[in-house]
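User: Please predict structures.

Assistant: First:
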Amino acid sequence: MTESRNPDRLPLTRIQRLIGRYMLQSKRTKASAYLTVRADLTELTRMRKAYCKQVKVRATTQDFFICAIARAIAAYPLMAAAFSQDGRFLEISEQIGVGFAVAAPQGLVVPVVQDVEHKNLPQLAAESEALLKKARANKLLPDDFDGANIVLTGLGMYGIESFYAISPPSALGIVSIGNIEDVVAPIENGFVTRKKMYVSLAFDQCIVDEFYAAEFLSCIAESLEDPWSLTRD
């Protein structure tokens, strides 16, 4: 007798199985805590296109985030830490990697911009664009996934204001960004419209406490609010 097919059952892809296993491992092994800040991106939205013309490189808002995260990790190195194998020490990574989530045809993937501490914004932008193209063409290599200390993910293109994501098991945390919104803000003689975005951080509280993580997240927001500071080597 031939087994009947159930139209309501869909087979899981290899990527779906891997993602499910990794995310469950992360939830089981990390004491995740969550923070959110609202960053003012008015100046960033004003200067980005002019800056791209100046350096002749396409730098997206995401690239500014990657650069801001890299600068913040350099200022707060415990965000690049992990437990030693015996669990007695924290080992700080000598090289800093920032991953970013991509909704590729084969499923969600997280390529990593590596050695970000040695690269300026145009270099980071060029590398992230190359990784994005490889992800969409299903041409990422195993080395392209290695070394993420912090991961960046965004859902602003879907109108999502804010959310918390699950970081991969190997990363200390994940930064989640929503859409940029016009917000009316008071000034001395009336009101002005500013462009703001919620920036959220999920982090492993076994490694850093909420005060350290809050300073790290604030550092990211401050860099984004002064975007020209990210263009200086």
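Second:
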Amino acid sequence: MRLSTKLTAAAIAIGLTAGAASQALAQQKPDEALKMRQGLMQAVKMNFGPIAGFAQGKGDLPADAAAKAGHLTALAKMAPMAWGKGSEALPGANTKAEAFASADFAKGWTAMGEASAKLQAAAASGGAEAIKAAAGEVGKTCKGCHDTFRKE
């Protein structure tokens, strides 16, 4: 198979996969969205917590800090799909209703992804001060959304 044929086939497969994922999200039930959201936030905590602890002087830098930061970048890309309409009023939902229609909320996840990518680069280089600074930026993006969109 020629390279252009392979590329075309790959593009079609990606398009079909994206379309199927989009359709599946449209059919997602509110309670499933809430469970997904809670799981994603737990994953953020598990990946960022040890790095944040290091940045605050409360522990050692995890040996897999760059991988953990990479996971945060991926989670930031996936997270917006977990805030499906209808899940805001469920018991255990800790997000204010206005987040579900806010462009700033979506921008927050983009900012987290960008900050996490910088953290990954800093962790890969191994410079403690750069890692601490980059971790601080990730923390600021988290805090910004929590302060604005998390229920008290």
